[in-house]
Write a structure and sequence with these properties.
- The protein is α+β, with helices and mostly antiparallel strands.
- Strands 2-1-12-11-10-9-8-7 form an eight-stranded antiparallel sheet, with helices on both faces. A two-stranded antiparallel ribbon has the order 3-6. Strands 4-5 form a two-stranded antiparallel ribbon.
- A hairpin with a 2-residue loop joins strand 9 and strand 10.
- Helix 2 packs antiparallel against helix 11.
- It is globular and about 55 Å long.
């Protein structure tokens, strides 16, 4: 990845009229032109490589309708993988004004889907005995507030910790607003809420918090003496062959990339791909990947990625709770993974949203089938609840296609 870093000079700062809405969306939701016609799977313009299967025309029309909806994303790509074959659905363009189709090898911000990566690191360390799911913040991170010391790794991973969310802190928001490309000390992000009490007794409730996975990464570092970025490479990227996935500190994206947009009709969409520094979200949402790599990751993660039966059972122990934004069907929270129970069956994965991007990555429990759905705008219950409802229905339709046992080449 470093060899493919973005070579361009820094882009101009975003216009002031747009900066505050973008930052507000980041804090609340995620930390959570010319349009091309639909390009079907196997279209030579896609440049994706690998074997492709025929697409479902109804799903293709649904994805195109999402892009064509007022306030919809400028681009969308969905990739279904089963039996070593891909179905690639695309609508819109990777960059307004170019007509260039979206490709499975285009880089993008995966937003809170990155939380599954930190979960993978933590669970593999638990499997190796380097970390325990009942290890506490007090044991591994004693410098953090005493009031937090009884929170366990397990509670961080399933968002029952009660930790206050640093992305909602007024000082953090003010600093990000003043300089969206500010370089934060990623390992000190929890300092913004160090004076705040827990939201509830650990383990007694569910509440999604971006602070949780920052603490997970810090615990992994404390247990191993190795930087989180190195652990990602050793435990996740290398075993799964992820060559186009990284955790940057800056605001640039590797080329080529899907351009992400702030969409606020009647104003023209604004490119916000490089508005924000990834250092402010780090292990909670800073990873950059591609649809191809993200699919490979979620297949490996859903399959357990080498976990033994004891840790695997705990990974897949679920409590009531939704990912952010909500995924298809009925959502329940496990250890850095969500179950999505749809009318056609259940898949396991994670969603995410970030200014300019919305993600779903899901797979069957055996890791043989996967689905990724990526949009080039941020869609959640705060920014566009109606569009989110439409997206969730479409995601469920894609899950049904993924689980259709009549498909040639599919795995049962």
């Amino acid at each position: 990845m470093p060899a493919r870093s973005h070579p361009d000079a820094p882009l101009p700062r975003p216009r002031p009229r747009r900066r505050r809405p973008v930052v507000a969306a980041l804090a609340v939701a995620s930390l959570a032109g010319l349009m091309s016609g639909p390009a079907h799977a196997g279209d030579d313009r896609g440049g994706d490589g690998g074997p492709h299967g025929p697409v479902d025309r109804r799903l293709q029309r649904g994805l195109q309708a999402l892009v064509d909806t007022p306030g919809g994303p400028p681009g969308a790509i969905a990739v279904l993988t089963a039996g070593g074959r891909n179905e690639v659905y695309r609508a819109g363009t990777s960059q307004l004004g170019t007509g260039r189709p979206l490709r499975t090898t285009d880089h993008m911000r995966i937003a809170s889907t990155a939380k599954a990566f930190s979960g993978s690191v933590a669970l593999q360390l638990a499997e190796r005995g380097a970390l325990g799911l009942d290890d506490t913040i007090g044991r591994r991170l004693p410098r953090l507030p005493v009031a937090w010391h009884r929170v366990t790794l397990r509670q961080l991973l399933n968002h029952t910790s009660g930790l206050p969310d640093y992305t909602e802190d007024p000082t953090f928001i003010a600093e990000l607003t003043a300089d969206p490309r500010r370089h934060f000390d990623s390992r000190r992000l929890l300092d913004y809420v160090a004076g705040d009490p827990l939201r509830f007794r650990p383990g007694s409730a569910y509440r999604y918090s971006n602070s949780d996975n920052i603490a997970v990464a810090l615990m992994a570092e404390a247990a191993t003496g190795r930087r989180y970025e190195k652990l990602l490479g050793e435990l996740v990227y290398r075993p799964l062959g992820l060559r186009d996935t990284s955790l940057p500190q800056g605001y640039r994206l590797p080329e080529p990339y899907l351009h992400g947009y702030a969409v606020d009709p009647p104003e023209a969409p604004e490119d916000v791909s490089t508005v924000l520094s990834a250092s402010g979200v780090w292990a909670s949402g800073g990873i950059v990947s591609t649809p191809r790599d993200l699919g490979a990751f979620i297949r490996g993660y859903a399959d357990g990625l080498g976990l033994g039966p004891a840790v695997r059972r705990q990974q897949l122990s679920f409590v009531a709770g939704s990912s952010e934004p909500a995924g298809p069907g009925r959502n329940r929270a496990g250890l850095a993974v969500f179950s999505y129970a749809t009318r056609c069956g259940t898949v396991y994965g994670h969603t995410g949203n970030f200014p300019g991007y919305t993600q779903l990555a899901a797979a069957t429990k055996d890791g043989k089938r996967s689905l990724t759905v990526s949009l080039t705008s941020q869609v959640n219950s705060a920014t566009n609840p109606r569009l989110l409802a439409t997206l969730r229905k479409l995601q469920e339709d894609f899950v049904c296609r993924l689980l259709d046992r009549r498909k040639p080449g599919g795995a049962s």
